[in-house]
Amino acid sequence: MTELEKQFQTPMVNLLLSIADDKLFLGHRNSDWTGIAPILEADIAFSSLAQDDIAHASAIYQLIHTLTGEDPDQIAFHRTECAYLCADIVTKSDDFNWASAIARQFYCNTFDFLRLQRLGESSWVPLSSLAKRLCAEQAIHVDHVHSWIDHLGKGNEDSAARIQTALDTFAPYAAMLFEKPEGLDTLHEADVLADHSDFFTAWISSIETTINNAGLALNIQQSNNKGGRNGVHDADFTLSLSELQEVFSTDPLAAW
Amino acid sequence: MVSTSEIFEVLKTIPDPEMPISITDLGLIEEIILDDTNVLIKLLPTFIGCFALPAIANDIKQKVVELQGIDSVEIEFVHDPPWNTDRITDNGRVSLAEHGISVPDGSSPCCNTGTTDTVELTTSAFTCPWCNSTDTTLTSPFGPTRCKSIHFCNACRQPFERMKKV
User: Fold this and answer.
1) pLDDT digit string (tens) for A80-122?
2) Statement: A7-249 belongs to CATH 1.25.40.10
């Protein structure tokens, strides 16, 4: 199917916003490390990850544009806080602690990889073809962050303790990645998207081997709280949003 | 009246801004649609976030509009089919090898398998394009461009680049 029926447009836009907003804000936070990451390769990696994330977001905003006609830049930068549907883990501050940046990246990338893989099976072709393309690139991010978990877990006592603390601190926020944006069930019922009730357990099994092999523990519980995916955000998000909109708001109609 | 093959000949002369290879040898051209004096060229980006895309689009517009009988040139980036290194021509592979850039075969099956070790960056010893040794190590999965990783050959003590499997 290449045309999306009208009744599925709003749920689809919500879903696409939740993906693109995750990537836009995570890319923004990852770019904080440009120039100051602990080693040169990590600096290049985080700058590249940020570049990919923001480019992926842009491609998804472009897809939203095909549904709503809205300008992709306006969608990205010119919404009110409650209209952003990212999970708050993407804007949760790492306080320039490398272990925190890696833990956040680990949870977000592994989740996003599985999400894209599942979207690659959507019956709406414009989504499935884009998701497959993004998924292949995301696999490289996942491979990279898995190796960082391994480095830190097996490094020494200090690095293992730091990454364990960071993984535990970010775990409740990671659980919120699975919150459903409004209308997702409609897409499942209409077979636009297969229902993946095993998503959380599939994700756990995709990450626990790496965690355990690195000598670390995964302490995470499923959550039913309402949060970012329904527009309810915390203070770190508000700060990120104001940073992100700072330049754009000086002249919202400027051509970039 | 211009033909699509004449347009393709022009595209052959346009180098990739970041690689020692033409955009046609890199396999970026998906379709050329000619409507009288207007042409639409559909391109496949190697990586979605490639910085070179706007430069490539500009180069194409400038060169193709110079053709007699062409009034307008539109560029569209499409993702279906996804680009992969199998689209690189033999000619292109020779040029890349001369510059110490190795090229994988096939596309990444990770979207079907759900596992990421298929990207092979941390699981395989790649062949050094300088001396053919397989005693090589990954230096960084992220290199000077979005589509390449950086490796080091322990035999000839030379760094080399490899295009990523996507």
Assistant:
1) 999 999 999 999 999 999 999 999 999 999 999 999 999 999 9
2) no
Task: Pick one of 3.60.21.10, 3.30.420.10, 1.10.1650.10, 3.30.300.130 as the CATH number of B4-77.
Answer: 3.30.300.130
Ordered by start, the domain boundaries in chain B are 4-77, 101-163
Peptide bond preceding B45: is omega within 30 degrees of 0, i.e. cis? no
Which residue in chain B has the smallest CA separation from A144? B141
pLDDT digits (tens, 9 = 90+) for B24-79: 999 999 999 999 999 999 999 999 988 899 999 999 999 999 999 999 999 999 98
Query: Quick check: A136 and B121 CB within 8 A?
Result: no
State which H helix or E strand residue A88 sits in: none
CA pseudo-torsion sign A76, A77, A78, A84: positive
Kindly state whether A68 is in contact with chain B, defined as any CB-CB distance less than 8 angstroms: no
Percent helix, strand, coil in chain A, to 5, is: 70, 0, 30
Tell me which residue in B48, B114, B121 faces A133 most closely, judged by beta carbons.
B48
Nearest CA in chain B to A114: B114
The tokens for B137 are: 């190590």
Backbone angles phi, psi at A203, to 5 degrees: -65, -45
Alpha carbon of A85: minimum distance to chain B alpha carbons (Å): 22
Using CB atoms, pick whichever of B50, B111, B117 lies closest to residue A143: B117
Is this complex's ipTM strictly greater than 0.90?
no
Residue A44 in contact with partner chain B when CB distance is under 8 A: yes
pLDDT digits (tens, 9 = 90+) for A32-87: 999 999 999 999 999 999 999 999 999 999 999 999 999 999 999 999 999 999 99
Confidence (pTM): 0.92
Which of B51, B78, B116, B166 is the mutation pick for testing A, counting most A CBs within 10 A? B116
How far apart are the C-alpha atoms of B7 and B19, rounded to whole Å?
A: 22
Residue in A51, A136, A146 nearest the CB of B108 = A136
Query: How distant is the Cα of B66 from the closest Cα of chain A, in angstroms?
Result: 27
For chain A, the structural domain boundaries read 7-249
